[in-house]
Design a protein that fits this description.
By secondary structure, this protein is mainly β. Helices cover 0% and strands 69% of the residues. A hairpin with a 2-residue loop joins strand 4 and strand 5.
Length: 181
Amino acid sequence: MISLTVCSLHAQNVTFGAKTGVNFATLNGDDAEDADSRTSFHIGATAEFSLSETFSIQPELLYSGQGFTTKESDIDITGKMDYINLPIMAKFYVAEGLSLEVGPQIGFLLSAKAEGESDGTSASVDFKDETKSVDFGANFGVGYKLDSGINLGLRYNLGLMSVSDEDSDDLKNSVLQLSVG
């Protein structure tokens, strides 16, 4: 006798969207004492998979301008580190439209350049070869979804590993993001 089992699959509520916003990025760690914030932006795509009324998973694909600023011998230096980031956020809806978010992130370094200017003279140095090509981080945030479908978000990305190829250097990404999507 052959027995057949029928499983019903419930369609998940999936929404796709785009997001953009401002980054306030710097480097943290024992070797980042003179690093200040660099302001840049992020832009990309999102998908939210609602698993229940109060829980969803949101993978994202983002371009993210990160880095730092510092000053050495009266020279203003901006370290521009550009990434493609893939965060996967668990979203817990704690009230109508309001969510708490947490999740891991992997980032792939696109470029790393230091630009400096002093007395009207500027220079640029590529330091991608001294920087790890992959970055891992943990994200923590809060979001609010309006009835119109527009999302507002505030997120902090805490780098979990040094971005420097030098084993002795302790330089981790630190990024505060404000987003609209």
